[in-house]
Design goal:
The protein is of the alpha/beta class. Helix content is 37%, strand content 19%. It has two domains: 99 residues, Enolase-like, N-terminal domain (Enolase-like, domain 1, 2-Layer Sandwich); 214 residues, Alpha-Beta Barrel (TIM Barrel), CATH 3.20.20.120. The chain contains twelve helices and twelve strands. It starts with a helix and ends in a 6-residue tail after the last helix. The structure holds ligand 164 and magnesium ion. This is o-succinylbenzoate synthase.
């Protein structure tokens, strides 16, 4: 059932949550939460995204709040810690927020820094985790093929689990994968899946060893499951720095995947200084639970975005809903 826009906005709440540290250049996260007959959904495309891109995120929120829930195969999902580009002396404090995790994703290739900063951060994470820990790095498409190859060499002593979206294009990823063939350093595709007009192109080109999948940009759990199945590659479910409502959507996807070989990037409630529920989906013992999340009315009020931002989000929902009505994305 596809609700009309008035139904979508009938029980919608716009929140603005502080982060504990800068991430993607922001220190606050805005999200619109909406309630339908199946529960709560989150609509939180980043502010700079255009309506065409944001409308897939709305389809995911509608799927969560109005759709039939997908059957799940597990009740907990192992997660990684996510380390933003903080100075080395803050690493321990940020990682402690995630509790006991065996895997850390380190953000690298920040435009304000150089490779030496990335190496220093990864070295410190390896020191903290010990030899058994797993470390992956995420360059958010910032490197050229040469830069990525150089970084792979510089980071080799720290035994990386994989390199996430080192370069922008599928062709670049394919070339890098070829150059790293003897290194046994897998390449994960993130932006090449979630921002691509064809999310399967990267798999078809043999340009990645695994996919990072996010429920909102892929248009919902069912659509993400189909993409993973058709790609035929291992998948890591990750958040978009969601509130606990969005993380519950991610946990449902992770819990529905037939195989889950990697820890998922769903521990990010630990990066929020506030959440919409008194029981956030924060990692405990290296996992998050697979369960529904009900926002707390007091917290929704306490973290309500200013009226002009609420109006902005409502308009965005209206425009995206119009786009969805004209497309086939909500058809399943
Ligand atoms: O995967 C994780 O560990 C957490 C999520 C995460 O890193 C991201 C969430 C949202 C936007 C992105 O910049 C970033 C990513 O690229 O994976
Ligand atoms: Mg990424």
């Amino acid at each position: 059932m596809t609700p009309d826009v008035e139904e979508l906005l009938a029980d919608a709440h716009v929140v603005r949550l502080p982060l504990v540290t800068r991430f993607r250049g922001v220190i606050e996260r805005e999200a619109l939460l909406l309630r339908g007959p199946s529960g709560w959904g989150e609509f939180s495309p980043f502010l700079e995204y255009d309506d065409a891109e944001a409308s897939a995120w709305l389809a995911a929120a509608i799927d969560a709040a109005w759709g039939a829930p997908t059957p799940v195969l597990r009740d907990a999902v192992p997660v990684n810690a996510t380390l933003p580009t903080v100075p080395v002396d803050r690493i321990r404090e940020v990682l402690e927020r995630f509790g006991e995790v065996r895997t850390v994703k380190v953000k690298v290739a920040d435009a304000r820094e150089g490779l030496a900063d990335d190496v220093a951060r990864v070295r410190e994470v390896r020191r903290i985790l010990g030899a058994e820990g797993r470390i992956r790095v995420d360059a958010n498409a910032a490197w050229s093929v040469d830069q990525a190859e150089r970084a792979a060499h510089a980071l080799a002593p720290f035994d990386l689990e994989y390199l996430e979206q080192p370069c922008t294009t599928v062709a670049e990823l394919a070339e890098l994968r070829e150059r790293l063939r003897d290194w046994q350093l897998p390449i994960a595709a993130d932006e090449s899946v979630r921002k691509a007009s064809d999310p399967l192109a990267v798999a078809r080109a043999g340009a990645a060893d695994l996919l990072v999948v996010k429920v909102q940009p892929l248009g919902g759990v069912a659509r993400a499951l189909r993409i993973v199945a058709e790609a035929g590659l291992p998948a890591v479910v990750s958040s978009a720095i969601d509130t606990s409502v969005g993380l519950a959507m991610g946990a449902r996807l992770a819990a529905a995947l037939p195989e889950l070989a990697y820890d998922c990037g769903l521990g990010t409630a630990a990066l929020l200084a506030a959440d919409v529920t008194a029981e956030p989906l924060r990692p405990r013992g290296g996992v998050i639970a697979v369960r529904a999340v009900e926002p707390d009315a007091t917290l929704l009020r306490q973290h309500a975005a200013p009226p002009e931002r609420v109006a902005w989000w409502h308009e965005r929902v209206r425009r995206c809903a119009a786009l969805l009505a004209a497309s086939t994305l909500t058809a399943g």
